[in-house]
Design brief:
Its EC number is 5.4.99.5. The protein contains three helices and no strands. By secondary structure, the protein is mainly α. It has a single domain, classed as Chorismate mutase (Chorismate Mutase Domain, subunit A, Up-down Bundle). Helix 1 crosses helix 3 and helix 2 packs antiparallel against helix 3. The radius of gyration is 17 Å and the shape is elongated.
Protein backbone atom coordinates (compact mmCIF):
# COMPACT_ATOMS: atom_id res chain seq x y z
CA UNK A 1 0.00 0.00 0.00
CA UNK A 2 1.32 3.43 -0.92
CA UNK A 3 1.64 6.05 1.80
CA UNK A 4 -0.92 8.84 1.87
CA UNK A 5 0.78 12.02 0.75
CA UNK A 6 -0.03 15.56 1.83
CA UNK A 7 -1.94 17.39 -0.90
CA UNK A 8 1.01 19.64 -1.69
CA UNK A 9 3.16 16.55 -2.44
CA UNK A 10 0.69 14.81 -4.78
CA UNK A 11 1.71 14.58 -8.42
CA UNK A 12 -0.96 12.18 -9.72
CA UNK A 13 -4.73 11.97 -9.45
CA UNK A 14 -4.34 8.50 -7.92
CA UNK A 15 -2.41 10.09 -5.03
CA UNK A 16 -5.02 12.83 -4.68
CA UNK A 17 -7.87 10.31 -4.65
CA UNK A 18 -6.10 8.09 -2.13
CA UNK A 19 -5.65 11.09 0.14
CA UNK A 20 -9.27 12.19 -0.21
CA UNK A 21 -10.54 8.65 0.45
CA UNK A 22 -8.36 8.35 3.56
CA UNK A 23 -9.57 11.72 4.83
CA UNK A 24 -13.18 10.74 4.19
CA UNK A 25 -12.72 7.65 6.36
CA UNK A 26 -11.25 9.86 9.11
CA UNK A 27 -14.13 12.32 8.79
CA UNK A 28 -16.70 9.53 9.16
CA UNK A 29 -14.90 8.28 12.27
CA UNK A 30 -14.93 11.81 13.67
CA UNK A 31 -18.63 12.15 12.88
CA UNK A 32 -19.24 8.91 14.78
CA UNK A 33 -17.57 10.54 17.78
CA UNK A 34 -19.66 13.70 17.32
CA UNK A 35 -22.87 11.69 17.15
CA UNK A 36 -21.82 9.82 20.31
CA UNK A 37 -22.12 13.23 21.99
CA UNK A 38 -25.64 13.53 20.56
CA UNK A 39 -26.43 10.19 22.21
CA UNK A 40 -25.09 11.60 25.48
CA UNK A 41 -27.10 14.80 25.09
CA UNK A 42 -30.27 12.78 24.49
CA UNK A 43 -29.54 10.85 27.66
CA UNK A 44 -28.78 13.97 29.73
CA UNK A 45 -31.42 16.45 28.57
CA UNK A 46 -34.55 16.34 30.72
CA UNK A 47 -37.11 16.88 27.95
CA UNK A 48 -37.42 16.44 24.19
CA UNK A 49 -38.11 20.16 23.87
CA UNK A 50 -34.58 20.82 25.16
CA UNK A 51 -33.02 19.12 22.12
CA UNK A 52 -33.36 22.08 19.74
CA UNK A 53 -31.40 25.08 21.01
CA UNK A 54 -31.26 27.78 18.34
CA UNK A 55 -28.78 29.93 20.30
CA UNK A 56 -26.37 27.01 20.62
CA UNK A 57 -26.86 26.13 16.95
CA UNK A 58 -25.95 29.68 15.92
CA UNK A 59 -22.90 29.59 18.21
CA UNK A 60 -21.64 26.29 16.75
CA UNK A 61 -22.05 27.53 13.17
CA UNK A 62 -20.36 30.86 13.95
CA UNK A 63 -17.43 29.04 15.57
CA UNK A 64 -17.06 26.77 12.53
CA UNK A 65 -17.18 29.76 10.18
CA UNK A 66 -14.53 31.62 12.21
CA UNK A 67 -12.27 28.56 12.39
CA UNK A 68 -12.67 28.01 8.65
CA UNK A 69 -11.81 31.60 7.83
CA UNK A 70 -8.80 31.48 10.16
CA UNK A 71 -7.64 28.39 8.23
CA UNK A 72 -8.06 30.14 4.89
CA UNK A 73 -11.24 28.29 3.93
CA UNK A 74 -14.46 29.84 2.59
CA UNK A 75 -16.47 30.73 5.69
CA UNK A 76 -19.84 30.80 3.95
CA UNK A 77 -19.38 27.31 2.50
CA UNK A 78 -18.25 25.88 5.83
CA UNK A 79 -21.16 27.59 7.61
CA UNK A 80 -23.55 25.95 5.14
CA UNK A 81 -21.98 22.54 5.77
CA UNK A 82 -22.26 23.08 9.51
CA UNK A 83 -25.91 24.08 9.13
CA UNK A 84 -26.54 20.68 7.57
CA UNK A 85 -24.38 18.91 10.15
CA UNK A 86 -26.15 20.56 13.08
CA UNK A 87 -29.58 19.83 11.64
CA UNK A 88 -28.61 16.18 11.07
CA UNK A 89 -27.28 16.07 14.63
CA UNK A 90 -30.54 17.47 16.00
CA UNK A 91 -32.55 14.90 14.04
CA UNK A 92 -30.28 12.13 15.32
CA UNK A 93 -30.55 13.41 18.90
CA UNK A 94 -34.35 13.61 18.68
CA UNK A 95 -34.47 9.99 17.50
CA UNK A 96 -32.09 8.95 20.28
CA UNK A 97 -34.21 10.81 22.83
CA UNK A 98 -37.33 9.07 21.56
CA UNK A 99 -35.63 5.64 21.76
CA UNK A 100 -34.55 6.39 25.32
CA UNK A 101 -37.99 7.64 26.32
CA UNK A 102 -39.51 4.51 24.83
Amino acid sequence: MNPILPGADCTTMAEVRAGVDALDRELVAMLRRRFDYMDAAARIKPARTAVRDEARKAQVIAQARAAAEAAGLPGEAIAALWEQLVEASIAYELAAFDRRAG
